Amino acid sequence: MNYKKKSYNFANLDLWLTFLRDDLELKGVAMGFARLPAGKGYTFTHQHEQQEEVYVVFSGKGIIYIDGEYIELVSGDIIKVDAVASRSLKADETSELVCLILGALPAKGFPQKASSKTLIDDGIPDWENLPPWYEGNQKVIEINKKLKAEREAN
After folding, report:
1. Where is the signal peptide (predicted)?
2. Which end of the chain is more exposed for a tag (fewer CB within 10 A), N or C?
3. SS3 55
4. Domain 10-104 coded CATH 1.10.260.40
5. How far apart are CA 153 and CA 110, in angstroms?
6. pTM of this structure
7. Domain spans of the chain?
8. pLDDT tens figures, 11-51
């Protein structure tokens, strides 16, 4: 089996931090949820040697304290924090804060092409092997031919 699936109830995550490494057998990305009660936050600041972090706010509001600056967070916000930045997270006094936190190390050698739209551009498209829901769809076949030609031109 080349995948690992786990379901979470986003409306009722455990309070504080839930780390997903073991549940998903993660090897290349750090991932966890933060569910901070109203008015509560981390009790210390932290930074990393190499790992940048991305905070995706699912619900609520709060602040993230980065290198002495308070930055407001609301549902829908996404903020990337450089590894060396000192940071800490706190929920608003009137609202809990629920975030997905992602971390990763610099992708040395990527992107491989300057024109790439993605950071890790090691995808290997199989233009002729359509997913079952598009098998025989001539429009999709033509789209894939065009995408293949564009990719090969770069």
Report:
1. none
2. N
3. strand
4. no
5. 19
6. 0.80
7. 10-104, 109-154
8. 888 888 878 788 877 788 888 889 999 999 888 888 888 88
